[in-house]
Amino acid sequence: MASAPLLINDTLAQAVVGAAPGLEVGVLSEGYSADAESSLGDQRVSMVPDVAANLVKDGYSINIEKGAGVYAGFSDEAYVKAGCRVTDRTDVIRKSQVLFALDAPVRSFPEMKGKVLISWVGRLQDKGKELVAQANENQITLIDVTAVPRITIAQKLDVLSSQAKVAGHRAIIEATHAFGRFHTGEMTAAGKYPPSQTFVLGIGVAGLAAIGTSRALGSVVRAWDVRDVSDQVHSMGAKWVTVDFKEDGAGQGGYAKESSDAFKEAQQATFKKVLSEVDIAITTAAIPGRRSPLLITKDAVDAMKPGSVIVDLASIGGGNCELTRPGEAYTTANGVTIIGYNDMPARMANQSSAMYSQNMANLLKHVHAKGKAADFLPNLYGALDQGEKGDIVSRSIVCCRKGELVQMPPPPQPTPVKPKVVVDPNKGKVPVSPLRAAISAAMALTVGICCMLYLGEGVKTSLLTTFLLAGAAGYQAVWGVAHALHTPLMSVTNAISGMTAVGGLLLLERSNSGGASFLAAIAILVSAVNIIGGFVVSQRMLNLFSKKGSVDYSPFMLLPGLVFLIVSLTRPELLQAVTTVSALLCVCAIGALASMSSANAGCKFGMVGVFGAMSATMVGLSQTNLEIAAVLLSLGGGLGLYVGLQVSPIALPQTVAAFHSLVGLAAMATSIGSYVANPIGGAPAASSPTASSTAT
């Protein structure tokens, strides 16, 4: 019965494989059951259908135990379609010369005499040594897939790296589930939420995977390792945490070595400080054959914020956290969730199985080299018989053979780190002739001067001067502005452009036309909306950048506005100076918005500058026009204040654009009103000092 086809396509599959395969290999189930009360077994499978199909082409005949890949998402039918034979466990062991299993099936060892078992052993650890002894007693040739040397040609066989990558990714997913909040910073109508803070300890494959996934989710990541891998950390967008202690942490085989006691004391102080600030901690530090180093003490856990999460990927080796319970997840008394699952890769069984299976295929192909399946065993045993001249990979992974233990060769020494070479940026550049540079600069300046002179032909010198100086001042003011402050800068600039109110006030005072006066009133009204609303929106934007608990004393900058008011009312001969200083303050406001440290003060500079110009203009109005202007400014200012305070934070940039359209309306109304009042010559030139504020 065992040889009878179990599935409809089984006969076809055997025909595809061929009557005389080069090598019979078997894939065993890991014994996982969803109905089991305990967590025995593993959801992964050591061979997936896609990889099996490629091995069949190389002459391998593959026997799959029934249901081996079910919990990893691979059905028996999929294996049959790939050219495999699905049968029961006993038949798989009996017919196969080479057997695959993630966890060494100790209970089946008596049935495997004379077979080759490729499994996850961990020969350097106590448990692995016991497995090797048991396999040796049963005359099994045991291959430890975790013993692959850390050399370039063996990278494609490295199951530790492939499974660690899955574990690092899954660690962030588990932490996210337990954390229960946003990773990326959010600014919504329902409030502002800062990004999460993540601390990754141990920057191997798992640590780098954790950094990548965490950064992709929007978290702010910090990282540490006993080795100086700051370049890798920075390249992934994370910040490097430095322990104030010098020690070389590189060990044999590319792993980290155990740290000294003095270094441990220094790192504990650093870790406690960082952990008190972050939301999520991922630990990955492990030393082959030794207990996992203790990185997070109970005191450090007690200092963490309630709701924080620790994921200990080194729990199987005792854990990097003092409070880790291997295989469990629980919450401490101070609200910190500690996750110590031992089966992170198995929690992504489909992905981890696919990667492990590809490692196994690479292992088979590495050993049989240019040959096919029939060359696997001869090449494997040949490498062992050749001693030091044999393949280093084969000699490293075989633990025992024919009842004899096989000594593992010493791990290769890591390549010494090359010192960083500082490249001279000027190296290779041909020096420019000073004479040629001087002549080129002189010619460019000459052309520029000619363009400006002829551009100003027929234009009043005062207007040209104002235009050129304003352009130069504006260029210097906004040069070097921080990217995050672009929108607040535009908002303050827009509020200052509400100076179109000055043109409306002058037109209201000097026009005898009803139509022109109406247009002047519109200009004053909408300009007031823009000024008050614009500054309110600008301040709200800047408040979004303020740190929690910080106090803003910039409102004291508004006091000079009282000086402008007093001088405008009592010293009319100084109105020209008031308008000039007001214009200067507006330019300073734009310049101050280039940096976060001076942005709040810059916003106040703009308010004072606009207030000074408006005060100097309004003192020259008649009593009737002053009352009309006061009403219009109050109505417009009140409307702008209401809109600026009520608009949603996420709609602040759009509000700035809407306010700016009012500036265009005010300018258009003033221009049309000026033409209506003076259809031939336009608005008469103002001789009062306030006229300069319009130019400003």
- Assess the beta-strand content as a share of residues: 5-15%
Largest sheet: 8 strands, mixed
In terms of per-residue confidence, which ranges show pLDDT below 50 for 5 or more consecutive residues? 1-20, 251-255, 682-696
Strand tally is 17
Shape, principal axes of CA atoms:
elongated
Radius of gyration: 38 Å
Cα distance, first to last residue? 99 Å
Q: What integer is the average pLDDT?
A: 84
Give the number of domains: 3
Q: What would you say about this model in short?
A:
By secondary structure, the protein is of the alpha/beta class. An 8-stranded mixed β-sheet has the order 3-2-1-4-5-6-16-17, with helices on both faces. Strands 11-10-9-12-13-15-14 form a 7-stranded mixed β-sheet.
Walkthrough of the structure:
- The protein is α/β, with parallel strands linked by helices and 696 residues long.
- The chain folds into three domains: 10-156 and 350-405, NAD(P)-binding Rossmann-like Domain (Rossmann fold, 3-Layer(aba) Sandwich); 160-348, NAD(P)-binding Rossmann-like Domain (Rossmann fold, 3-Layer(aba) Sandwich), CATH 3.40.50; 482-695, no CATH class.
- The protein contains 24 helices and 17 strands.
- The strands form three sheets. Strands 3-2-1-4-5-6-16-17 form an eight-stranded mixed beta sheet, sandwiched between helices. A seven-stranded mixed beta sheet has the order 11-10-9-12-13-15-14.
- Helix 5 (126-137) links the parallel strand 5 and strand 6.
- Helix 17 (500-510) packs parallel to helix 23 (652-677), helix 19 (560-570) runs parallel beside helix 21 and helix 20 packs antiparallel against helix 21.
- The longest helix has 30 residues, at 514-543.
